[in-house]
Amino acid sequence: MSVTAFKLNNVESIADKMKRLRDEAAGHARVHAQDFVRALEALEQLADDIAAGGEAYPVGIRQAAKNVAPQLSGTRLNVTALLDRGV
User: Do the beta carbons of residue 83 and residue 37 sit within 8 Å?
Assistant: First the structure.
C-alpha cells in the first residue's frame, strides 16, 4: 500500500478563514446598524407627524407619539455616534 501526498495550492488557513468571516460579519452588521438608524429616523418623523396631527388623531395616540419621539431621537443619535466611532 502506498501513500500519496497531495500538494494543496491556494488553501486558506483556518485562521485566515476565521478572520475573513469575522470581517464579513462585521461589515454586514455595520450595514444592518445603518439600516436601523434609517428606520429610527423614519419612525421619529412619523411620531412627530402624529404628535403634531391635531384632532385628526385620538388623544392617546398623539400623546404616545409625543412621548416616544424624544426617545427615538436620542437612540438614533446614540447609535449614529457609536457607528461614527467604529464601535
Answer: yes
